[in-house]
Write a structure and sequence with these properties.
The structure is a homodimer of 406-residue chains. By secondary structure, chain A is an alpha+beta fold. In chain A, 30% of the residues lie in helices and 28% in strands. Chain A folds into 2 domains: 281 residues, 2-Layer Sandwich (BirA Bifunctional Protein, domain 2), CATH 3.30.930; 102 residues, 3-Layer(aba) Sandwich (Rossmann fold). At the A-B interface, strand 2, helix 2, strand 3, strand 4 and strand 5 of A face strand 2, helix 2, strand 3, strand 4 and strand 5 of B.
Chain lengths: 406, 406
C-alpha cells in the first residue's frame, strides 16, 4: 500500500475509502474489461441493479439482522430504509420473481454486474484489500436442476481459470464453508502472496489445494506432505440452492406440475482487491510489478533532459518518432505514455519508471543522437540498445501471440 | 418509459430506482464507452472518487445545508456522517489541495469520472429521466488563469459536440444561470424532444439557442422570430471560478509570488438520462428508435418457426450461416443477436424486433429455402430480399465510413 501511495496510484479520503488516481483507474479499466470478456464467454449477461436495496428485502431472508453490523444503511426523505448492497442474492431473487412466469426452457440464465459494493468493515485495513467501497464482479446463475447448476458452476470456474491465466496469476481453488450465504457448497479462489492473511496448503504432488485447518498439513487427496502458503482470497463461488428463491418466491415452471423454486448459484470476484492482491503477489518492497494485461500503460518513453546535448540535438523529435513507432504495433496502440518531465535527469526518471513497473521502458539517451539513433530499451528488466525499426520488430514478435481470454 | 418496460429494458425496484436489464445495460456500455472516447480526446483522465463523501467536506462550502433536501445521507458504525454524492466539486477541490504543491506548469489538468450519482428527488418521475440513482459523467478542469479555463471549456464543448454528432442527436448549447453551483457562467445542453419539460427557443436564421424566458420569443442574437421547442437537459457545463478551491484551499504556485486558488471548471452529462432522452427524441409511441451507435445490438436474425417448411428444410443452418456472414463485417462483430424463440411465428418476432428498434433485422423466411437462399433484410425500415453474399456487401459498404468520435 505504501508503494501505491508513493507512486500516486491511490489516495485515502476517509478511513476505508480511496480515490483511484488516473493510473490506477486505467489499470482497473483494463481489469474490468478482461473480466467482462472472460465472464461473458460463459454466457453471462451484464445488468445493473441499484446500489440502494430496500432493507425490507433483506429482512425476508434474515440477512438484515445477521449482517447488520457490516451494512451501511440509510433512510430517504420519506423514511424508507435502504442498505448499500454488499451483494445481491436477494435483489436477483426478487428480479427473477418479478419476471415470472419463467419456463424451464428459458433456464439456465446467468446474470452479472460489475459495480461498487459496500461493507462497513470494523477495521478497514491493508488499503484496497479491505476497503469499505470496492469494485466487485457478482454473477448469479438461475437453474432448473442441481445438475444444471453444477454444469454452469463448472463453466464459470473455467471462466475464472481463463481470467487468472490471462493475468499469469497462480490462483488456487479450494473448498470452503458456505457460512452466512447458505447453500450446499462453495469454493474460495486464493492467490498465494506472502503478505496474505489466509493460509492454504497446496500439494506439490497432485496440486490439490485446501484451506489450512486443523486436519493437519498432509494433502487430503493423496496423503503426501503439502506446502503451506500465505494467500489472499480474490474470489468466492457458491451453489446456493433455494435459500433465496424460496424466501422471495422466485419460481420456474417445470414441464409438468406446479412451479418450483429456482436453484441458484453465485460467483464473486473482488476487482479492486484482485488488483491490489496481484501487486502484492508480484511486486518487491521497492518496485511495483503488474500482470502485463493490466499495467496502466504497456510502455513509457523517457525523453532527454532539458539542456542536455540530446535535448539540443533533437528536443522531442526522437520521442515523437519512438511514440509513433510503438503505436504502429497494434497491441500497444493508445497504450504508450510519454514522460515529459524534462526537468528531471533520464536516470532519475528511469528509477521512477522501474518503481512504477511499466513492462517496457524506452529512454532517449546519449545514443539517440547517433546515426542511426538508438534507444535504451528495457523489457521485463533486460536492457538493450536498438533502433526504432528493431524496436518495432522486437515488440511485434513479442505481441504476435497475445494471449486473449477466449 | 412504458415502451422501455414492455420491451424488457428496465424494471423499477422501488420509487426512483431502476434495474437495467441486459439489453439496456448493453446500450449503456456502448454509450459510456463513446463518452470515454470523446472526453479523453480533450485530454481528460479518468479517476474514481468514493461515492460516500464526508458530510464535513460539504459543510465547508455551505452546500450541505443548501442541498440538504436532495441529499441521501448516512452514518457509519462510528457515527461518522457521509452523503452519497450527487456531484464532486468539493471532493475534487480536496484532492487538488491534497496534491499540493501544484506548479502552474502542471496545469491545466482535466479529471473525469463515469459513475453512479445520487439525488433524493422529491417526486422521481419519467423513469430514467429523473431517477434517484443514475450514471453520470462528471469532469473537472483545474486552471491557472481564466483564459486557460476558457480554452479548456471550449475544448470540452467540442468533445460534447463530437459526442452528440456521433449519436446523430441535435443538442442545443444554451446559456444558463449557474444557480447553486456558483461560478461566472454556464451552459445547458438541451436535446429537443416533444415530451421534454424544458423549453428553448432556437433561431432558424442564425441557429442561436436560448432558454425560453420572459424576454420573449425573438432571437436574442439576430432579432428574428425563434422557434419554440420542448427539450430535455442532457448536460451542463460551468466555469466555477474559485468558489470551491478557496473554501478547500486548493492552490497552485504561480511563476512568482504566493500560492493562488486554482480556477475550476466542471462538466456533466447525465448518462442514463441521455440514453432515455435519446429514445424519447427518436422513438414513436409504438416503437423504439436508438441512435445507431448505442442500439443494444446492431442486428437481429430471426430463424424459421419450429415445424415450418423452412424449419424442416434447414433448421438453424441458415441462421448460423447469416450469423457468420454478419460477424465477418468488422463493425458488426459480436454485435449480432439471434432470436431463437422458434415457438413464435416470424411475423410476430418481426413485430417485436421492430418495436425494439434493432437497426438491422434479418428474417429467414420462405425464400431461405430457395437456391440460392435469400433473406428478408430490413435496414432503417426498408426491406429487401438478398443472399448472404449480397448482405455482406451491403453492410460492408454501409459501415465502411463509420463515424467515430475522433
Amino acid at each position: 500500500m505504501v508503494l501505491l501511495l508513493e507512486c500516486g496510484l491511490v489516495r485515502p479520503t476517509t478511513s476505508g475509502f480511496f480515490t483511484l488516481l488516473p493510473l490506477a483507474r486505467r489499470a482497473l479499466d483494463k481489469l474490468e474489461n478482461l473480466i467482462k470478456t472472460c465472464i461473458e464467454s460463459s454466457g453471462a449477461q451484464r445488468l445493473s441493479l441499484p446500489a440502494l436495496t430496500s432493507a425490507g428485502l433483506w429482512a425476508k431472508t434474515g440477512r438484515l439482522e445477521n449482517a447488520a453490523a457490516e451494512l451501511l444503511t440509510l433512510e430517504d426523505r420519506h423514511n424508507k430504509k435502504y442498505l448499500l448492497a454488499p451483494t445481491y442474492e436477494e435483489a436477483i431473487a426478487e428480479l427473477l420473481s418479478d419476471l415470472k412466469p419463467i419456463s424451464y426452457k428459458q433456464l439456465p440464465i446467468i446474470l452479472y454486474q460489475i459495480s461498487n459494493k459496500y461493507r462497513d468493515e470494523l477495521r478497514p485495513k491493508h488499503g484496497l484489500l479491505r476497503a469499505r467501497e470496492f469494485s466487485m464482479l457478482d454473477a448469479y446463475g438461475a437453474h432448473a436442476s442441481s445438475d444444471c447448476a453444477l454444469q454452469v458452476y463448472g463453466r464459470m470456474a473455467t471462466a475464472y481459470e481463463h481470467l487468472f491465466r490471462a493475468l499469469h496469476l497462480k490462483v488456487h481453488k479450494v473448498e470452503a464453508p458456505s457460512g452466512d450465504m447458505g447453500g450446499s457448497f462453495s469454493h474460495e479462489w486464493q492467490l498465494a502472496a506472502t503478505s496474505g492473511e489466509d493460509q492454504i496448503k497446496v500439494c506439490p504432488s497432485c496440486s490439490h489445494a485446501a484451506l489450512l485447518n486443523d486436519e493437519g498439513t498432509r494433502c487430503q487427496s493423496c496423503g503426501k506432505d503439502a506446502e503451506i502458503l500465505q494467500s489472499i482470497e480474490v474470489g468466492h463461488t457458491f451453489i446456493l440452492g433455494t435459500k433465496y428463491s424460496e424466501a422471495l418466491e422466485a419460481t420456474y415452471c417445470p414441464p409438468s406440475g406446479p412451479p418450483l423454486p429456482i436453484i441458484m448459484s453465485c460467483y464473486g470476484i473482488g476487482i479492486t482487491r484482485l488488483l491490489a492482491a496481484s501487486l502484492e503477489a508480484l511486486s518487491t518492497e521497492k518496485a511495483l510489478r503488474w500482470p502485463k494485461a493490466i499495467a496502466p500503460y504497456s510502455a513509457i518513453i523517457i525523453g532527454p533532459k532539458e539542456g542536455s546535448k540530446e535535448w539540443n540535438d533533437h528536443g522531442m523529435d526522437q520521442v515523437k518518432l519512438v511514440y509513433d513507432a510503438l503505436n504502429s504495433v497494434p497491441a500497444l496502440r493508445s497504450d504508450v505514455l510519454v514522460d515529459d518531465r524534462h526537468g528531471l535527469t533520464i536516470g532519475k526518471r528511469l528509477l521512477m519508471a522501474d518503481k512504477m513497473g511499466y513492462p517496457i521502458v524506452i529512454a532517449c539517451g546519449k545514443e539517440s543522437s547517433s546515426n542511426p539513433p538508438r534507444y535504451e530499451v528495457t523489457i521485463d528488466g533486460a536492457t538493450q540498445l536498438c533502433t526504432a525499426q528493431e524496436l518495432v520488430q522486437i515488440l511485434s514478435d513479442k505481441y504476435a501471440h497475445l494471449e486473449y481470454c477466449t
